[in-house]
Amino acid sequence: MIRRCLTLVLLGTAAPAYAQDERPTGYPRSANERSDKPVTLSAVYVADIRSNVSGGIARGTRYLDNLDLQVAIDADRLVGWHCARLFLYGLYDNGASLSSDLVGDAQGVSNIETGVRAARLFEAWVEQDVGRNASVKVGLYNLNSEFDTTQSGGLFLVSAHGIGPEFAQAGRRGPSIFPVTSLAVRGEVKLGEHWLGRVAVLDGVPGDPAHPARTAVKLSSTDGALVVSEVDYLSHGTKAAIGVWGYTARFDDVGTSDPAAARRGNKGAYVFAEHRLVGSRADDAHGLAGWLRFGVADTRFNRIGRYIGGGLVHTGTAPGRPDDQVGLSVAAAGFGARYRRDHSALDRDRDRQEVVVETVYNAVVTPWLSVQPDLQYVVNPGGDALRKDAVVTGLRIKIGR
Q1: Within a domain: residue 8?
Q2: Which residues contact 320 (CB under 8 A, 6 or more apart)?
Q3: For the domain that residue 209 is a member of, what is the CATH number?
Q4: Domain count for the chain
Q5: Which of the listed residues 45, 123, 170, 229 has the most CB atoms within 10 Å of its CB?
Q6: Domain limits at 75?
Q7: Long-range contacts, stretch 63-66, CB < 8 angstroms, 24+ apart
Q8: Cβ partners under 8 Å of residue 220, min gap 6
């Protein structure tokens, strides 16, 4: 007999609220979904040694690290709370700065850079199934765990492939994503054999900007809310999605700071498609996969108005290395006219976008150890005409599982 309640995906992404045979066709299974444990623990340490060897602001090397500690609880199995799941996620980052101090890029060449040394509670939520086809999640919530996310993009180190930079920049402190999250309510429902829909309402300003290293929840009418919705199509190795987002609060136009002139309308949208080009089983990662994403944001309030990115990932690169991966990606962020006009260092005609080309290899040494050399070429870092194109090399080491 198949259980009607499933355990969440361990790495912060919740499984749908319905049983395996009821999910949209092609929805990938996680290892944790096959676990019968009421409590699952995880500890992962990631270390980045990254060097800007040419161009950008300055040459130099930085050591960045990130420690993830997670507890996933199947409340049904543990205490008999029917069809409920709990999740706690703490993290630590050393706060070393690579993009700000050395490269000067806008998209984030390391997706574990925070700029602030801090240990904080990142996620803490409860998810409850509603009937057979829906669930509701409440608590501290990482928006990017379920919205605007691809499997293939997770291989790369540039932040733009985790969540689009036109979305990540939005709001007074960005949306509720790494490394600071906010209170949220998220609903998800199965819409058909291949379709999922979800909506989230989140506090518009994650944490406390006055104390960036603290885990804090501050709700106020001036912060407003961020509302996000996404519809996914999932079938046999294909995932396609369209999402829209918007803030309820008032914002200043780019380059101004007049509270009396603040206005509403800070919104955007994105669309992406990911497809397994070799192989058709969604739960079989081997072979070649690729994705393409496009997003826009209102340039009255945001410096990045459009973004397009994508790439290719091949898994199982050689005989005897079934889990190794190699990938090539491109991320292009376009700066809005207001932002370019208000920054005299920018050439209004030439420096309209920043492009990051990345190639990476992930060598899985053991199930708990991987080594990942990486090379990035950054064209027009930050869109600044005074900065030369940057070359960033690095090595990432991941310990744990």
Answers
A1: no
A2: none
A3: 2.40.160.180
A4: 1
A5: 170
A6: 20-400
A7: 63/94, 63/96, 64/93, 64/94, 64/96, 64/98, 64/110, 64/112, 64/113, 65/92, 65/93, 65/94, 65/96, 65/112, 66/91, 66/92, 66/93, 66/112
A8: none
